[in-house]
Amino acid sequence: MERLRCDWCESTNPTDANSCRSCGAPLHDAARVSDSGWREAPRIRDMTEIQFGQSALRVEGEIVPVAEIALVAGDSVFFEHHVLLWKDDAVPLSIMALQGGMKRAFAGMPFVISVAHGPGRIAFSRDATGEVVVLPLHPGMEVDAREHAFLLASHQVEYSFVRIQGLRNILFGGQGMFLDRFMAPREPGVLMLHGYGNVLERRLGPGESILLEPGALLYKDAAVTMNVEAVPGLATGLFGGVGMNLVRMTGPGRVGIQSMYVHHETE
Prior knowledge:
Structural class: mainly beta
Helix content: under 10%
Number of helices: 1
Distance between the termini: 50 Å
């Protein structure tokens, strides 16, 4: 049977589908790619439906997108508690057990992760304009996301965090930079992120690298390495001792950036 391949997440879809059932990307729109290799995240159309497990996720609105989920019995999603918009009365909530709670609290990361269990409907949104990006995770895939970027992840996804050494005094005043890590160990799952402003992605080849302003990073494949580098020549003269630190991202793998950076205090 002939199928349509999604350019964004590489999932296959029925030929009569208008949007990808795994990530919501329009299937008949050409990818928008700059001369430097950055491609725009797909503009998920209002009321687009995405399937994960036996449940359905619908993206509503465009200025401040809402993720509304119809959970079936046995399915669940986890999320930072403050992104909950509304829920059916019958949808129970619980708390996910997390390791390293004190480290997370001092680093400004969420240290309370809530879980919603089906059946029933529940919706999520962040309180700022931007774009939502849906990243289907196939078994064995690992994705790292910056703090306070994820809206939700399905129960098939495992959640932990990693520390990126050398970023002290850039984001967390000496604590270093932590990234949320999401992995699908056995079954396909879904991860939904919110990027402030616009979201762009670039795929790096083995050994290929680029330099980013640290606040621009939204997500990366776990295989992409990060190293902090000081920009030479900015510590004297005109800048009077003001230095600049950038992050070198080295492939292979995807790197996603956001065009607007919002700093979150510890919540």
